[in-house]
Each structure stands twice: as structure tokens, then as C-alpha cells.
């Protein structure tokens, strides 16, 4: 049952290529091995029709056991507020593998609950974990972050409690790359303004007195060519874009050739040549305010800045100034600081800015995949197995 349900959960997700399949394989292996070890309780064999791994259809069998809720390892799910529908779905997933304990239940019965909690499930980058919480969880072994960015977690402090942190790089790559492309296209073709004109009661006809720019054959500069950046490059290639990238580590030659990407050792070169600059770096002390006044002034006045990483990678005041004085053409931001921006923030008043509320992974499939990847990570830690995606403090 354990295994069949886990695979059933994966069924609605379309087969993905490359790294996403890796996630399936990890989950497959971990879930199957978890099943094999449960030999003391009610065991039965079950046959599965479909394996979601790249090998295609394949039959596997596994032994599983039925566990009472109290026997399952305890996972604390942090209260993220405002996302009740999403939380309900996640809760249903988590309950298949864990004794799920909400923050409310934990606070109401701290003494009993704190002993049971072996893992914490963090939904995306919203809630953080403080020292006080860690001190109250003596049996905590792992914090499973659902999402790739862990800049909201104090990794050194968490590690000092002997607690591991994991993330979900595989599940986030495709949807985040999609939102990067969506923002680039929407900003280039002024989609939001177009929608506003279309729904405006004053509009007599749809003729517009402004023009967009084309993405096709334009130059895209990717700053941060990790797995999301690479997926953006794959998509951009279909638009015949010229692709430049800047990264701490140069990608392998075959990888560059596969997407036609050119490495810029100096970020300045990329900024000067690109029509669209897309930020996809992790937020670290090195990337904090990576793009400020100087960098913006190097960009073409016709260029667009797209940010799908973290708000603090840009000096936001400098960006406001650059957009107001047309140092650059436009910006499209899925991330800002703070999130959300205060209603009177100048960025919200500019018509050459598109802002979305950090929705890079806000899809039915991504939430599901991230939860599965986080669950696989947590189970690996609890079962003493190799951890698919552990994050280490620097
Ligand atoms: O922002 C989303 C993530 O870090 O996965």
C-alpha cells in the first residue's frame, strides 16, 4: 500500500525529462526499500502497472506494511497561513508516510508532541525556523524544505543541533524555467498592459499606441546557469535566441553546445550585450544586491531585467530609479523584498514593470512533486539511507 499510493500520487504528473526523472528514481528506490524493510507487520505483495521512471512501463513488486498513525515518524508542518487549499493537499500526502503534527497541535500539547517530531516539513521559502523551535524538538533529525532556495534557513545554526536540511531541486526546475519564459514574453509583448486595455470600459477599440519588442532572435543573458538556468536555455533555444550565460562554474562544453550557450566570464560583458537579462542565482552573501546601479547602467536602454531568484539579488531602490529614468526598458519580477511589496511601493506604480507574487513553483504538479521529493529526502535521513538532496552549510 505504501508503495502503490506513492506511485499513484505521481501518476497525474506528466513524464518529465532529464533531472526530473532522477527525482522519480530516487523516490522509487527509497519508497521501495522502505517497503522491503517493513517485514514485521502486515506484509503483502502488490503488483504495479506503471513505473514513472524513464524506462517506461515496468512491473515491480514490493513488500509493505500498514502502520498505525502513532507508529509513523512525526513530521511537524509549519503553519504557512493563507494557503489552506495547498496545505490540505500536502497534508494528505504527508499523512501517508508520517504522523502529521500541525503547529497548532504542537503548541497545544508541546510535551508529548515534541518527543514525537523527527522531521519538519517547510513549505517553500515562507516560514523560517528559529533556535527556540529547535531547542524544543529533542528528536529532530531533518528539516525537509519543499523548494530549492534555503536562504530563509540558518543552515549553520540548524547544523549545530545535528539536524540535516534537504531541498527539492529536481521538482522546481521546469516550472520555474516556465515562469522565467512567461515573464520574459509577457514583458516583451506588454501583455499585462494589453489585458488592461482589453478589459477597460473606456476602450472603444483595441488599437494601441505602443509597441512591444520581440523575444525571437534576441539575446538572452542568464546569470546563474544551474538546473533552472539550463532549462531556460533549452526553452530559449526554441525561440532562436542568442544565449549568453555567466556562472561561478562554466558548464561542460557538450552542455553549452546542446543549447548553443556562450559563457561570459565577466558578468559585465553579458549585461552589455543582452536584450533580456534573467537572474537565476541562489541568494547568498555573494549574490546579495548583485545587480545595483552600476550593473543597471551597463545594460542596454532597450533591455529587460527578469528576476526569478530572490528579490534581494537586486538593489530595488536602484532598480526603481533605473526604470523611472528609462536606464533600462522594463523589469519582470517574480520575487521582491519584502514579499508582498507594500501597496504604496514605487515599483507597483510603474507601467514598465510586471510583478508576480513568487509563483515560480505554484502549479498543481510542482507542489506535488516537491512534496514527494521532500518526503523522499526526509525518509532517507530517518532510514539512514543516502540522501538525494542534502544542503550543507557553507
Ligand atoms: O522559490 C522557490 C524555491 O526556492 O524553490
From TrEMBL:
One GO MF term: NAD binding
Domain of life: Eukaryota
Entries under PROSITE patterns matching the protein: D_2_HYDROXYACID_DH_1 (PS00065)
Domain (D-isomer specific 2-hydroxyacid dehydrogenase NAD-binding): residue spans on this chain: 181-360
Gene3D superfamilies cross-referenced by the UniProt entry: NAD(P)-binding Rossmann-like Domain
Regions annotated as coiled coil: none
Keywords associated with the record: Oxidoreductase
InterPro entries with a match to the protein in the record: D-isomer_2-hydroxyacid_DH, D-isomer_2_OHA_DH_cat_dom, D-isomer_DH_CS1, D-isomer_DH_NAD-bd, NAD(P)-bd_dom_sf
GO CC, one annotated term: cytosol
Chaperone in keyword set: no
UniProt domain D-isomer specific 2-hydroxyacid dehydrogenase catalytic: residue ranges: 89-391
Family as reported in the entry's similarity comment: Belongs to the D-isomer specific 2-hydroxyacid dehydrogenase family.
PANTHER family from the UniProt entry: 2-HYDROXYACID DEHYDROGENASE-RELATED, 2-KETOGLUCONATE REDUCTASE
The protein's name in its UniProt record: Glyoxylate reductase/hydroxypyruvate reductase
Source organism of this protein record: Pipra filicauda
Gene: LOC113988170
Amino acid at each position: 500500500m505504501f508503495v502503490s499510493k506513492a506511485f499513484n500520487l505521481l501518476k497525474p504528473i506528466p513524464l518529465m525529462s532529464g533531472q526530473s526523472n532522477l527525482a522519480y528514481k530516487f523516490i522509487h528506490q527509497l519508497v521501495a526499500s522502505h517497503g522491503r524493510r517493513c517485514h514485521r507487520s502486515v506484509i503483502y505483495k502488490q503488483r504495479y502497472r506503471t513505473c514513472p521512471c524513464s524506462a517506461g512501463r515496468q512491473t515491480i513488486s514490493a513488500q509493505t506494511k500498514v502502520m498505525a498513525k502513532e507508529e509513523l515518524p512525526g513530521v511537524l508542518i509549519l503553519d504557512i497561513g493563507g494557503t489552506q487549499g495547498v496545505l490540505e493537499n500536502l497534508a494528505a500526502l504527508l499523512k501517508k508516510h508520517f504522523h502529521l503534527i500541525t503547529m497548532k497541535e504542537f503548541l497545544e500539547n508541546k510535551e508529548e508532541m515534541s518527543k514525537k517530531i523527527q522531521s519538519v516539513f517547510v513549505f517553500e521559502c515562507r516560514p523560517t525556523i528559529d533556535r527556540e523551535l529547535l531547542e524544543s524538538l529533542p528528536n529532530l533529525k531533518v528539516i525537509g524544505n519543499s523548494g530549492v532556495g534555503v536562504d530563509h534557513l540558518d543552515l549553520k545554526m540548524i547544523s549545530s543541533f545535528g539536524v540535516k536540511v534537504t531541498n527539492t531541486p529536481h521538482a522546481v526546475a521546469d516550472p520555474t524555467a516556465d515562469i522565467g519564459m512567461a515573464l520574459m514574453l509577457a514583458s516583451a509583448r506588454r501583455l499585462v498592459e494589453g489585458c488592461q486595455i482589453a478589459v477597460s470600459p473606456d476602450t472603444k477599440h483595441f488599437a494601441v499606441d505602443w509597441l512591444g519588442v520581440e523575444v525571437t532572435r534576441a539575446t538572452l543573458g542568464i546569470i546563474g546557469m544551474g538546473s533552472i538556468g539550463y532549462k531556460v536555455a533549452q526553452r530559449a533555444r526554441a525561440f532562436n535566441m542568442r544565449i549568453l550565460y555567466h556562472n561561478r562554474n562554466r558548464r561542460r562544453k557538450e552542455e553549452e553546445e546542446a543549447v548553443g550557450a556562450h559563457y561570459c566570464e565577466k558578468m559585465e560583458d553579458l549585461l552589455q550585450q543582452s536584450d533580456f537579462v534573467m537572474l537565476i542565482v541562489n541568494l547568498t552573501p555573494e549574490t546579495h544586491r548583485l545587480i545595483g546601479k552600476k550593473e543597471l547602467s551597463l545594460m542596454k536602454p532597450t533591455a529587460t531585467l527578469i528576476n526569478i531568484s530572490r528579490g534581494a539579488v537586486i538593489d530595488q531602490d536602484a532598480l526603481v530609479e533605473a526604470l523611472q529614468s528609462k536606464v533600462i526598458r522594463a523589469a519582470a519580477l517574480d520575487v521582491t523584498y519584502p514579499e508582498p511589496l507594500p501597496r504604496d511601493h514605487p515599483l507597483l506604480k510603474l507601467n514598465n514593470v510586471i510583478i508576480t507574487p513568487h509563483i515560480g513553483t505554484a502549479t498543481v504538479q510542482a507542489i506535488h512533486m516537491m512534496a514527494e521529493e521532500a518526503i523522499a529526502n526526509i525518509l532517507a535521513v530517518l532510514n539512514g539511507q543516502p540522501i538525494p538532496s542534502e544542503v550543507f552549510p557553507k
